[in-house]
């Protein structure tokens, strides 16, 4: 799968927003604003590769990418909290 430079910039921008949003959704599991943004970028990358392969489609456009990325970031935050926090959600 090839991602253009513009696509990578969109993923990074959306990851910033998704990380902030995931930090608000998963309270107490965040890593501060910078950590949440990094988790959001990682969640955006994971979501942009994984969701289309699973056939999960919400729609098209920037809003759907933000939703995908926020879901990916929330899942990633919960997994990191599960691993780091001794198994409690």
From TrEMBL:
GO cellular component labels: plasma membrane
Positions of transmembrane segments: 7-23, 29-50, 62-83
Coiled-coil intervals: none
Keyword line: Cell membrane, Membrane, Transmembrane, Transmembrane helix
Key word Metal-binding present: no
Subcellular location: Cell membrane
Pfam families: Transgly_assoc
Membrane topology: Multi-pass membrane protein
InterPro entries: Transgly_assoc
Keyword Cell membrane carried by entry: yes
Family statement drawn from the similarity comment of this UniProt entry: Belongs to the UPF0410 family.
Protein name (database record): Putative membrane protein YeaQ/YmgE (Transglycosylase-associated protein family)
Origin organism lineage: Bacteria, Pseudomonadati, Pseudomonadota, Alphaproteobacteria, Hyphomicrobiales
